[in-house]
Amino acid sequence: MKSFILLVVLLSAFFVSSCEREGVVKYENCQKRLTIEKGDLQTYYKTFVCQYKKRASGKVISGECVNLQMIGASGCSVGQCETAYIYTYQAEPDSGCTKEQPYKGNDNKCYKDWQVADEAKG
């Protein structure tokens, strides 16, 4: 019985969580745009498409994630966007850096601009 309860809890956690995929979504024509926080109730059971900014190393530094709720969609018909749920992502500062200068370059100095940090010679 205990293992059954554990299985139900684990499956519930899996199905309640949201997921992210990398890509680009256009949402200018949506009737409503709702800005939410990652992990809010509106993110449950939804897949978000995220457009990230990445450093040369591939580390994600920021991004915007969008989920579209469509109306009138069926089969091959795309339908019309009713609501766009949007949240942004901002990475924590690199180790030893501050929020004012969050990006560490190859020279171990911290920079305000991630592109400058990527170009810094070590």
What report would you give on this structure?
The protein has 122 residues and is of the alpha/beta class. The protein has two domains: 73 residues, no CATH class; 30 residues, no CATH class. Helices cover 17% and strands 35% of the residues. It contains two helices and seven strands, in the order H-E-E-E-E-E-E-E-H. It has a five-stranded mixed β-sheet, with no helix packed on it. The radius of gyration is 19 Å and the shape is elongated.
Shape annotation: elongated
- The separation of the N and C termini measures 59 Å
Total number of β-strand segments?
Answer: 7
Sheet/helix structural class: alpha/beta
Considering the chains and any ligands shown, give keywords for the structure:
122 residues, alpha/beta, 2 domains, five-stranded mixed beta sheet, 2 helices
Compact summary:
By secondary structure, the chain is of the alpha/beta class. The protein has helices at 2-16, 114-119; strands at 19-22, 32-35, 47-54, 60-71, 80-90, 103-104, 110-111.
